Amino acid sequence: MKQSTIDRIRRFTDEREWHKFHTPSNLAKSISIEANELLECFQWSDDGYDVEHVKEELADVLVYCRNMLDELELDEDEIINAKMDKNEAKYPIEKAKGKADKYNKL
User: Which of 54, 11, 16 lies closest to 35 in space, CA to CA?
Assistant: First the structure.
């Protein structure tokens, strides 16, 4: 995420004094709620969805994720790369390529 976008999200929250509501628990709930609203875009069709609505719901998920990162003082690159290291170990190319199986079924 670009720094200017991060700054805009932070400014939005600061100007409204919403930090008091941004507990990890509240943010986790909000991420889940917004992710379910994103899923609702595909409820009755895998291809008959409204791209603009998908973009709005995905943006909501990302904003709440950014707020969670800030609240917990986490670096998104650091945590994503740590998780990718684990994923690469659990899903080696030679076993996982072209398969949707969970790691314990490879």
Answer: 54
